Amino acid sequence: MAVIKLGILGSEVTLPEMKYFPGGDVEIPTDCSKNVSEEKMLDGSSSFNIDSIHPRAFRLEWDELTWAEVEALQALVDLNVELNYINEFTDSVGYPVVVLTFSGPTPIAETTGQAAILYKFSIELKGTGG
To answer: Which fold has domain 4-19+29-127?
Structure first.
């Protein structure tokens, strides 16, 4: 079965399974924007620098995590280093990324019928182009 992994290169960990509606496909929002910077010249004109590498960005969201799963995700966020992201649902290629933002853990209302409290958590990753 395909999984999503994140971690230090060579030490990636399998992330918790993302829950989807029955019959739904795994869809992880992926953005790719051109790496362009603009500089204003003394005469008021603009000069543009266009990099040859255009990094991807990925948003990972979970709706029903246990506290242990939240702690594992938080530990990855807290590393504050470049990580390797592998989404086996699309390919087996590792992408060097950094954590841009994260949100959570947020307790969810008791709608799952579970006795334990579950949490929402999300992580936004951006490719480093490395």
So the answer is: Elongation Factor Tu (Ef-tu); domain 3 (2.40.30)
